[in-house]
Amino acid sequence: MKIKKAQAGAISFVLLAFILLVIVVPAYIVFHGRSAQLYSSSASTLQESLYSSGLEATGDVRLTGVVDSSNTAQIILSNRGLVPKKIEYILVMLGEEQRIIRSTKVNIELNPNTWISNALDLSDLCQQNGCNNIVVLAITSDGEIIKSRIYTQEELTNIYGEQNQTAYLTAIQVFPLQSVTGSTISQQLSSGGLIHNETQVALPTLELVKNGTFSGLGVYKYISKDEPKSNTNRDAYVLKLYYSSVNITLNNIMVGNIFFGYHPSRNDSFNIMVTGDKVSGSIKINNNQLTSWCDLSSKSFRIKILGFKSFFPSYVFSLTLPNGAKANYTYPPDDPSNLLYLSKSGEAKLSLNGTAEAVYVYCATQSNYPSSYEPYILLYRTSNTTSGLSILFTTEDVNYGGVNDINDLRIPSAPNSDVSVSPLVLYFRPRNIIITNQAFNGLLINVKFRYHDNELDYTNYYTALDSEIFSISVVDSDGNTVGGRSFTLRELATTKITSPPLTLPQTASIYVPLPSPQVAGVKEYYLAIKIWDPFLLSKKGNNYVNDLDLTLLIESLVIIPIS
Predict the structure, then answer these.
(1) For residue range 309-366, what is the model confidence (pLDDT) as tens digits?
(2) Going by fewer Cβ within 10 Å, which terminus of the chain is more open, N or C?
């Protein structure tokens, strides 16, 4: 496969973002991991066949439900009218009893001549009542009710007979990464099916950084309040210490931010990242105290502890807060911004004691060249009930700010504004299926993520609001982008609160049609994920602008090829 830089294409349709609001019984509406087989050449064609056969009432807005052998229904909504329609609720009803048993507020904007599709888990209801006794209702904002019963595969076969062409909607999971092996980020990404430039996520040893290995590829820090005009005011995170399979004790380490989640396979172990801007406290490895884990001249540090299991069964680590109060933390928060800016109003200090599979200590070191992305990435499970690793990328270190000073600054002499030289690009190729435009007409992509940054003032001070922070696109085997979706600061800034830190979970759905093989030739297609921090500090008069640092967690990413 030839790889070019994936540019987010303009050919995309925003299909669906389900925000669940429980009204009667929790309605489980997600992209399901099992296959949902539709008995037609495409979801929209199936719906057209049912309506043209007189099996469903005609109208501008149409609703169809088809269930597969594992009782996962594919719900198809289309707007054949001339004006946009807004779907406010999806209801599930028992047909014989005319009783509504599930209700979900969805707020779907359905534009003219578009259709959307999503999976609906009906396993419990089908087992109790039979699938053909279930009716799905859609209610529009102007009160129109659209109804469809659920069709089984057997019924469709009886109606249409055996057909040669069948559309398979099979969910292919990208994130959380499955079947992950290896100890380094590069090995784990590769084992999860992600093709990438291994140098971009290599461990940033002093030799590699000083030799310029990550030039044009990585991330560096500005450590001066002057505008970046030369290399003399740059730092790079350098790997100072590495240990594997050790006992570790942290005692009163001053911390700015803490990120942590579950170990890939154990609920009693955790992956942890700590950031800070003052070298203090002590670290012991196998009961031996480290005399110098970072130089006192380092303006910031990061510590990653992977596979950490606490010696204290009641908590993972403890914090002494700036007001002197102590808090024990027992499990990871859903919101990755929950433990940001801990030392904003004084020094917060972290202590922990336990075993670790691996320990990495990174120290900010003056350098003409950038570091890799490796110190900025943490892979972990977001829940103890899920499998696979989500990906967190963060350039936030200690603080937030506005235009009066550099955002990521707590100590006046130690600014910590990070910026990417170029994006980290991850290409996904499924293990068990080859996606070609001969086999499939398009790709439906669903992503769930959280975003945060440390900027208080956006609109009035030249912040580059249209800068792309991450994108999801589809590229062919020649490296050409055929469609996708970009996520800019202008959009993402509305999904979080800087302080007190808060992120709101976001979902987005993207449909990318694949070019006809008659026009483009038969080609294989890949998913491209691009992530970076593009914000380069500048000054407008006495104001510091465009200096925000950010955090992005991609919790899940699913592809559904449509044939």
Answers:
(1) 999 999 999 999 999 999 999 999 999 999 999 999 899 999 999 999 999 999 999 8
(2) N
How many angstroms separate the CA atoms of 170 and 524, rounded?
17
- 3-state DSSP percent of the chain in helix, strand and coil, to 5: 10, 45, 45
Arithmetic mean of pLDDT over the chain: 82
Cβ neighbours, 10 Å, residue 457: 17
pTM: predicted TM-score of the whole model, two decimal places: 0.73
What is the C-alpha to C-alpha distance for residues 366 and 374, in angstroms, rounded to an integer? 18
Low pLDDT (below 70) residues in the chain: 1-59, 68-73, 95-98, 113, 117-119, 153-170, 224-232, 459-461
* Residue 470 backbone dihedrals phi, psi, to 5 degrees: -150, 160
Question: Any residues with CB less than 8 A from the CB of 42 and at least 6 apart, and which?
Answer: 167, 441, 562, 563
Q: What span, in angstroms and rounded, lies between the C-alpha atoms of 129 and 71?
A: 12
Query: What's CA 439's distance to the chain center, in Å?
Result: 28
Residues 6+ apart with CB under 8 A from 213: 199, 202, 369, 372
- Residue in the block written with tokens 């259709």: 115
Output b/e per residue, 182-202; b: 16+ Cβ within 10 A.
eeebbebbbebbbbbbeebbb
Overall fold of domain 32-170: Immunoglobulin-like (2.60.40)
Distance CA 351, CA 230 (A): 38
- Let me know the angle formed at the C-alpha of 50 by 45 and 53, rounded to the nearest 5 degrees: 120
Q: Which two tokens stand for residue 82?
A: 């001339």
Q: Of the candidates 559, 560, 208, which has an alpha carbon nearest to the alpha carbon of residue 373?
A: 208
Q: Can you tell me the distance from the alpha carbon of 65 to that of 73, in angstroms, rounded to the nearest whole number?
A: 6
pLDDT score for 126: 78
Question: Residue ranges of the domains in the chain?
Answer: 32-170, 175-562
